[in-house]
Write a structure and sequence with these properties.
Number of domains: 3
Structural class: alpha+beta
Low-confidence stretches: 27-32, 119-126, 132-136, 288-300
Mean pLDDT: 75
Number of helices: 12
Oligomer: single chain
Largest sheet: 5 strands, antiparallel
Strand content: 5-15%
């Protein structure tokens, strides 16, 4: 009997503990099932807050349409409120998502305010001078009929013509080369640019050309007009040149230089190098009439020019007795031309040139004081 009571009482002692343990083991799976059920129930809301709202945030910042930003702000705040009402997800997840989307809504709101044109309009209106409202020329004045017609008529803008550069003709380019050599007094190079027909007629082309151009040196010139076309055999170019004379003075002269074409190459006609008139600052007449005005005008007496001390004179180094103005002077034998001995007018009284006599044929200047 004693043994029966001992063994039979053993399970009863631990009966309450066993039932409590079983209750705990049976209750635990129920909690897990509720969490899984909550996740499944709010899966669509999870898709919205994790995928759709981030895409809407990016679109609100990237696109310049303020309506998209307002839609994002309203929808994101609605989703946050819905999470808390439904107690979706865990409390920590709800708090983090709320913080994230409230901050995103604030960023989008700032972007909308900054990009709004109302601020620019307000700044523009504030620049209006209050005193101008009461001036005579304001919008408060009664508009006239012409003002109404001008306001109603659309403004027609006339397009500006395109500026096109006029190409320089081949004849003008050839003349520019001739003028450069003339400024350098390079007579030999100038002869190469003269018309072949003129060269064939001259016994000494270099001397003839020097007599026509050597007493003056062009420092600058401008082209006034070019006559003819590229298909013509000859063209005339009107220029005004500033030339330095042998006496040291400066004159503006007008030339009408004839250009002749031979074998598709343009040459200068030296016979046209004579000036057709002098140009002054008071000359307001067209250049076509200048030559006739000068021709018909009665010449007035001019003071005797003074000789430039830097004027170059020439002499024959092989025992010559005269000093010349022309290195190709006709009084000299052709075997000695052009003269190579040179000195300036200011050196006439030097010991080396004191015995030289003035050549009257080429118009050399007299000695100072004579």
């Amino acid at each position: 009997m004693s043994n029966r009571n001992h063994y039979s009482s053993t399970p009863l002692i631990h009966m309450d503990k066993t039932k409590a343990g079983r209750a705990v083991e049976e209750d635990a799976p129920v909690v897990l099932e509720e969490e899984e059920e909550r996740v499944r129930r709010y899966g669509f809301l999870q898709f919205i807050v994790i995928l759709l709202l981030p895409l809407g945030f990016i679109a609100s910042l990237a696109l310049p349409i303020n309506l998209i930003g307002w839609l994002f702000i309203g929808f994101s705040l609605f989703c946050v409120l819905l999470m808390w009402l439904l107690r979706a997800f865990t409390q920590g997840a709800r708090a983090k998502l709320t913080l994230v989307y409230v901050a995103a809504a604030v960023v989008v709101l700032v972007k909308i305010i900054v990009s709004s044109p109302s601020a620019v309009t307000q700044r523009t209106v504030s620049r209006v001078d209050p005193n101008s409202i009461f001036s005579s020329n304001t919008a408060l004045d009664t508009p006239s009929l012409s003002d109404i017609e001008n306001a109603a008529a659309p403004l027609e803008s006339t397009p500006l013509p395109e500026q096109t550069e006029v190409p320089i003709s081949a004849a003008q380019l050839r003349l520019e080369e001739f003028m450069r050599y003339w400024a350098l007094q390079d007579t030999k190079s100038m002869v190469t640019l003269c018309a072949p027909s003129w060269i064939d007629k001259e016994e000494n082309p270099e001397a003839t050309l020097w007599r026509a151009t050597g007493f003056m040196t062009p420092s600058s010139y401008v082209v006034e007009k070019v006559y003819g076309s590229n298909t013509d055999s000859s063209r005339a170019i009107m220029i005004v040149a500033t030339v330095n004379n042998s006496d040291g003075s400066t004159t503006r002269k007008r030339y009408q230089i004839v250009m002749m074409r031979s074998n598709d190459t343009w040459y200068v006609d030296p016979a046209s190098l004579n000036s057709i008139g002098t140009v002054t600052d008071e000359d307001d007449e067209p250049f076509e009439q200048v030559s006739s005005i000068i021709t018909n005008a009665t010449p007035s007496p001019t003071p005797a020019p003074t000789v430039n001390p830097a004027l170059v004179l020439y002499y024959n180094t092989s025992g010559g007795k005269y000093y010349h103005l022309d290195p190709y002077c006709s009084s000299i034998s052709s075997e000695y031309t052009p003269l190579t001995g040179t000195f300036t007018y200011s050196q006439l009284d030097d010991a080396d040139y004191r015995k030289l006599t003035r050549c009257p044929r080429c118009g050399a200047p007299a000695r100072p004081g004579t």
